[in-house]
Amino acid sequence: MQTEFRINDRAYQMPDRPAVVICLDGCEPAYIDAALAKGVMPALADMLANGGTRHLARSAMPSFTNPNNLSIACGVPSSVHGICGNYFLNPETGEAVMMNGVEYLRAPTVFAGFQHAGAKVAVVTAKDKLRAPLGAGLDCSDGQAVCFSAERADQTTTAVNGIDDAARWLGQPVPAVYSGDLSLFVLQAGVRLLAERRPDILYLSTSDYVQHKHAPGSDEANAFMAGVDAALACLLAQDIRLVLTADHGMKAKHRADGSANVIYLAPLLDAALGAGQSRVILPITDPYVAHHGALGSFATVYLAPDGDAATTAALLAAIPGIDTVLPRAEACARFDLPPDRVGDLVVTCTADWALGTRIEEHDLSGLDAPLRSHGGVDEQLVPFVTNFVMTPPIAGLRNYDAWQVVTSLVD
Ligand SMILES: [Zn+2]
Predict the structure, then answer these.
(1) Distance from Cα 150 to the centre of ligand 1, integer Å
(2) N- or C-end of the chain: fewer Cβ atoms within 10 A?
(3) How far does the centroid of ligand 1 lie from the alpha carbon of residue 192, in Å?
(4) How far is the CA of 277 from the centre of ligand 1 (A)?
(5) Is position 254 within any domain?
């Protein structure tokens, strides 16, 4: 077994106890503040009172699920690993397609790197869309590593996932994909994996269903956080090093009457540039849009070959609610994005707004609660909680520093 090695040009050490990273999807820091204030996270409170630390970190941009899960998994931003959304315009085909496939990933994961160095690795995700990219390069055959999603826990095999019928193993039916229970299933699977297999590296990635629907401090959010805390207690009882962070925050993006507060970009661009002169891509788009209607706070705009990026940028920047409009090169430099996977312009909006293409292209029928979403700069702030003293905290701490911090033996 190797004790020190590099992955994506960052130094890692083999941990002396299981190193656990929880990515609590959509965990705006206020969810933890409110839950602690209400007293519904006693295990977390106890951990913080006994040497644990609570910092804030910034997520990778865009502040969406896949880019950040892959950033955490690789320890580097999208400019290195290539995954900058769920959905993008493939420059090779000119078609907008999903970016979930392993073929789009350009860097090895920390998981594959640790396995190569001799570590036992386990990865559990809520939705199946993340399982393949997070499991890239990981050899799960014959249970050498474990990698599965809660969503398809009843379909796992030892050959592919390193475990047979994970739902039966855990003794729980597969929860609904749109439920808080899907996330709690992930955490409870982590508890059991630790007890039975004691992996050196354990990554648990939940879903943000609860956070999209319920504000911090609401009864529903606190009940969910209490469930998280119960699992946390069982994890912490097993002599681990823990970092709990999030892929992105979550903000209310609706008016007082509950209607979604959206800037629809395509009609504005059509009016200014003429029809067919631009194309708006929303990287939040994926098959699971019922809880956000594909409305987030980050968009990228492709212009016709003779389009004027500077003039278009000035036009968009003047729209109330839009906080960043950058041409491709500047956007990639500021947000660590891969230039071949973003358009001529990158656009973000402030916390209380969302960006859309055209109203008729968004199916909001599944939105049974006022819109809450993410994707912009205002949703970059996430918790970074450790069960050990972290001194000094890394300057400019990012959520994707999690594996370096949790596996560092210095505490
Ligand atoms: Zn997310």
Answers:
(1) 15
(2) N
(3) 24
(4) 32
(5) no
Which domain range does residue 396 map to? 4-249+380-407
386 and 352 in a common domain: no
Distance CA 312, CA 293 (A): 26
Q: Give 207-249 as a DSSP string.
A: --HHHHHS-TTSHHHHHHHHHHHHHHHHHHTT--EEEEE-S--
Separation CA 331–CA 116 (nearest Å): 35
Determine the distance separating the centroid of ligand 1 and the alpha carbon of 372, expressed in angstroms: 12
Extended beta strands in 267-321, E state = 278-281, 298-303
245 lies in some domain: yes
| Residue 49 · residue 307 · CB < 8 Å | no
Q: How many A from CA of 306 to the centre of ligand 1?
A: 36
Residue 20 is part of a domain; what is its CATH number?
Answer: 3.40.720.10
- Whole-number Å distance, alpha carbon 25 to ligand 1 midpoint, is 4
CA of 156 to the centre of ligand 1 (A): 23
- The residues whose Cβ lies within 5 A of ligand 1, an ion, are 25-26, 65, 208, 247
pLDDT tens, N- to C-terminus, the chain (411 residues): 889 999 999 999 999 999 999 999 999 999 999 999 999 999 999 999 999 999 999 999 999 999 999 999 999 999 999 999 988 998 889 898 889 889 999 999 999 999 999 999 999 999 999 999 999 999 999 899 999 999 999 999 999 999 999 999 999 999 999 999 999 999 999 999 999 999 999 999 999 999 999 999 999 999 999 999 999 999 999 999 999 999 999 999 999 999 999 999 999 999 999 999 999 999 998 766 666 788 999 999 999 999 999 999 999 999 999 999 999 999 999 999 999 999 999 999 999 999 999 999 888 887 889 999 999 999 999 999 999 998 767 789 999 999 999 998 654
Ligand 1 centroid–CA 382 distance in Å is: 11
Q: Has residue 204 been placed in a domain? A: yes
Q: How many domains does the chain have?
A: 2
Give the side-chain half-sphere CA count within 13 A for 58: 14
What is the Å distance from ligand 1's center to 26 Cα? Answer: 5
Q: Ligand 1 centre and the CA of 211: distance in Å?
A: 9
Q: Which amino acid is at 270?
A: D
